[in-house]
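Re: Re: token formats

Sure, here are both.
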Amino acid sequence: MMLEDDTSLVSYQIGGVFIGHSQEETQEMLETAKEALEQEVKSVEERVSEIQQVLGDLKVQLYAKFGDNINLEADES
């Protein structure tokens, strides 16, 4: 966004196509895309947290039932 001329078109890729927009329009589109991605990341992180909680609860139940006869820890190899 360091163009000297405000009337120049900036190429913005949407899918497989580049579209020319003004610097201001491109900046707005980038901010909108950034906000959408941040929201998606937040949603995925919340889902991961929920799944990890369920996994922890299941491990507690299984270890309570089977004791040390099972290994539920992931291999680090």
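Second one below.
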Amino acid sequence: MSLSSILSADAIDSAIKDCQAADSFCPKKFFQMCGLSKKSAQDVKKVFGILDNDGSGFIEEEELKFFLQRFSPGARVLTDKETKAFLCAADDDSDGRIGADEFQAMVLS
């Protein structure tokens, strides 16, 4: 399954273009622009599964760096500052990684 089977390619492209500059990535804005925040909880869990590159059930900091590239292969890598801010915003239980429920809560809130 690919992200474009859940989200429109045009919306993904717009969201990626909006955060091309280093340190301009805002997860909430990205989720709104790509249309993910309007999807069902089930679709958000599917997207989480795609983003969880190693299939561990969590998105770790190393996977987060390449977050934008999971949406568009030519996209940039998140900066360390953006990666840490994203992790802090979503990691409700402070275990250093984002679980499916934490991801869903961030996207749909």
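Strands lie at 58-60, 97-99. Helices lie at 9-18, 27-34, 41-51, 61-65, 67-71, 80-90, 100-108.
- S.
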